[in-house]
Write a structure and sequence with these properties.
The complex is a heterodimer of chains A (about 240) and B (about 240). Chain A has about 240 residues and is α/β, with parallel strands linked by helices. Chain A is built from 4 helices and 14 strands. With about 240 residues, chain B is mainly beta. Classes of the chains: A alpha/beta (about 240), B mainly beta (about 240). The interface between A and B is large, with 74 and 94 residues.
């Protein structure tokens, strides 16, 4: 194939393989009143409500953190969230989140600043649940990244010692600058929210793994899983 | 300036299974007038035309090429016949064949990632941390042509990570970055670090899509075990 010289600031490429990337919108900081922002309805097509929260996040720039239900061990299958075919909304962000959690009462949501925490409802008031446990005083001094901050936080818990791992993939966990801060009577969940916020305005985290090996992952943005099939048990309009 | 005679016909492309053309430009989406002569012919012949600005992370979408002035005018074709356009190589060909140290960012389009380097950065064996952190890096190669791209620093990249294993739950995530000073995709960190030993039977497998300039490029399988990380190149995903 011969070369050509083109003065255009353009390159023309013939696509014969592959496909265009599916990339969501630009990163935008969430406004402070994001939970009162009105949004169009969202539709689940045999998807779970975390997918719905991810869609909502994409629409309004909401930071999202998710605590998945954990299986007993990493060698067994993890619990699979319920899937739905449903339409929620339109309404405010809060109303959409209420609608999603009404659809699947397994989950509940809380807000922390501009972040929404989605968690198993049964664990919200479980005092011994790892993420509900409090650190009396947490002092960060020139912390460089999320891993260091996470281990410092969990290391500050009173006995018993809690296991936690951090899986790092897809995004840098280094802070823009060394971070110094002091928190009192802060839960592990709240500390994780702070760490995510330190990474960036749209960052959040997920708790996954299993009860015998917990894993935290930080993310820049959640993406909904593709709809899995056409069948669905429920249609809900709020 | 380019002329329709510089490019293969729509019939030729269709006969070879090519149905889409991606136009990548630095500062604009719409094709310039001279290129529009060729693209409109392709579009009329059944080839979809998708423009893409390099600094836009959104996926490309099909456009209708506007009819340029003097479209299919005899004298316009005559210019080409007079040889005003063709260079010594002549004919249509691969713009990528001219990729060199002086290339511009717009020479990136359909490309591939190769020259993989996956190296351990940190190995933790206790007593406070266990696990590992790797760095994966890839060079960008123009396609067709196969030249290593060397001057695309700052071009946006993205990673979409999805769950493959059944033993943990994970909502897909999106992370964004850019090519480094060596025009490499550098994926740091990739790792799993725990404050307790990793289970010996640990096996977590993720699927990782990597894109450059908003264009999907390749899929990796990431396999996290108790002893390390393996990155398997699956090439472009069908």
């Amino acid at each position: 194939m011969k070369a050509i010289s083109i003065r255009l600031t353009a390159a023309l490429i013939v696509l014969s393989f592959g496909r265009a990337a599916e990339v969501s919108g630009q990163e935008t900081p969430a406004p402070t009143n994001v939970f009162q922002q009105s949004v169009a309805g969202l539709s689940l097509n045999n998807q779970d409500i975390i997918d719905g929260v991810a869609m909502l996040s994409q629409n309004v720039g909401l930071a999202v953190s998710v605590e998945h239900e954990l299986g007993a061990t990493t060698s067994g299958a993890a619990p699979q969230p319920n899937t739905f075919t449903a339409t929620i909304g339109p309404g405010t962000v809060s109303e959409i989140l209420d609608g999603l959690c009404a659809l699947d009462p397994t989950f509940a949501w809380q807000k922390d600043g501009n972040m929404v925490n989605v968690m198993p409802g049964a664990l919200v008031s479980e005092r011994d649940y790892f993420l509900n446990r409090n650190v009396n005083e947490l002092v960060f001094r020139d912390i460089r990244d999320a891993q260091e901050a996470l281990f410092k936080t969990v290391g500050g818990l009173p006995p018993p010692k809690e296991q936690v791992a951090i899986m790092e993939v897809g995004v840098s966990l280094a802070f823009a600058r060394p971070w110094s801060a002091r928190f009192q009577n802060i839960s592990i969940r709240e500390a994780l929210d702070q760490i995510a916020r330190q990474l960036g305005p749209t960052f959040g985290w997920q708790l996954t793994g299993a009860k015998n090996f917990r894993i935290i992952t930080f993310h820049q943005q959640l993406m909904p899983k593709p709809s899995r099939s056409e069948q669905g048990p429920t249609t809900v309009k709020k | 300036m380019v002329f329709p005679q510089d490019f293969p016909s729509a019939n030729f492309l269709v006969a070879h299974g090519i149905r889409q053309a991606l136009l990548v430009q630095k500062d604009r989406a719409e094709p310039q007038d001279d290129l529009a002569h060729s693209l409109l012919r392709w579009q009329e012949g059944g080839i979809k035309v998708l423009p893409k600005k390099l600094d836009d992370n959104s996926p490309p979408s099909e456009i209708t090429v506007k009819r340029p002035s003097k479209y299919k005018a005899t004298w316009y074709r005559a210019l080409a016949q007079l040889g005003l356009r063709r260079n010594g190589a002549g004919g249509f060909g691969s713009y990528f064949a001219e990729v060199s140290a002086s290339q511009n960012r717009e020479t990136l389009g359909v490309c591939s990632l190769a020259g993989d380097s996956v190296i351990p950065l940190s190995i933790y064996s206790g007593p406070s941390s266990y696990g590992y952190i790797y760095q994966a890096s890839y060079y960008v190669y123009a396609n067709p042509g196969g030249q290593k791209v060397t001057t695309a620093q700052g071009v946006s990249t993205y990673e979409n990570v999805t769950q493959t294993s059944a033993n943990y739950t994970y909502t897909p995530t999106l992370g964004q970055g850019s090519l480094n000073a060596n025009s490499q995709v550098v994926d740091t960190p990739l790792g799993l670090v725990s404050n307790a030993p990793l289970p010996s039977n640990l096996s977590i497998v993720d699927s990782q899509d990597i894109g450059v300039g908003g264009i999907y490029v390749r899929n990796n399988t990431l396999s996290f075990t108790a002893t390390g990380l393996a990155v398997t190149n699956n090439g472009p995903r069908s």
